[in-house]
Amino acid sequence: MKRNLIFWLIICLALVGSSAYAQTLKLGSEPDGFRGIKWGQDVSTVDGLIYQFSNGDSDFYFRSNDELKMGAAELEMIVYVFWQDRFSGVMLFTDGSSNWENLKAVVFEKFGEGQQENEQYIWRGIEVGMVLEYNEFSEEGTFGMISMKELLEQKKWEAEQNKKGVEEDW
Questions:
Q1: Number of helices and strands (H, E) in the chain?
Q2: What total number of domains does the chain contain?
Q3: Is 11 helix (H, G, I), strand (E, B) or coil?
Q4: Rounded distance between C-alpha atoms, residue 81 and residue 59, angstroms
Q5: Spatial separation of the C-alpha atoms in residues 60 and 81, rounded to whole Å
Q6: Which tens digit of pLDDT belongs to each residue from 119-168?
Q7: Quick count: other Cβ atoms within 10 Å of Cβ 1?
């Protein structure tokens, strides 16, 4: 699960400044959620979630009825992220180079080739940001999507909490 949290942090860091970049998604491909769950949807309205762990105000879940497949890629797991009980992102994990290549092919077909930065492919849209990466040593691939609205609200909330901490906790 540590791998999940690290990848989630990478996604957030890669996309925080996304408003300064041009949209890199294929025209008309920007998703409004994943597998029937809409960005911002309340956790209590989603069937089949299995709680895994929390980090701060983010909770990470598996979904009991998920087919661990994307095109020809067999997925190791899919992790759903809810920030303050609202759906904010999802992470897909692969194991092995052939599963990675198949996932990459599906993502490229759906969203275009994105923008390559170092060992990552990044897509920045108006509503969603995405990161796809592969570790050649471990042969682990990851693809994550995050709601930009939820990410910006989270950053705003954190800034307010920090200001409050300066005023009240010092």
A1: 3, 11
A2: 1
A3: helix
A4: 6
A5: 5
A6: 789 888 888 889 999 999 999 999 999 998 877 787 787 777 777 777 77
A7: 11
Structure tokens at 166: 């300066």
Query: Is pLDDT at 20 greater than 70 in this prediction?
Result: no
Structure tokens at 137: 């040593």
SS3 8: helix
The answer to whether the beta carbons of residues 159 and 153 sit under 8 Å apart is no
Q: How far, rounded to the nearest angstrom, does the alpha carbon of residue 38 sit from its chain's CA centroid?
A: 13
18: number of Cβ within 10 Å: 21
Residue 3 and residue 136 in contact, taking contact as beta carbons nearer than 8 Å: no
Least Cα distance to 156 among 168, 144, 166, 164 occurs for 164
49 close to 43: Cβ distance less than 8 angstroms:
yes
Q: The domain containing residue 115 runs over which residues?
A: 2-168
Q: Which amino acid makes up residue 12? A: C
How many angstroms separate the CA atoms of 87 and 46, rounded?
A: 9
- Other beta carbons less than 10 A from residue 87's beta carbon: 23
Amino acid in position 168: E
CA distance 33 to 31: 5
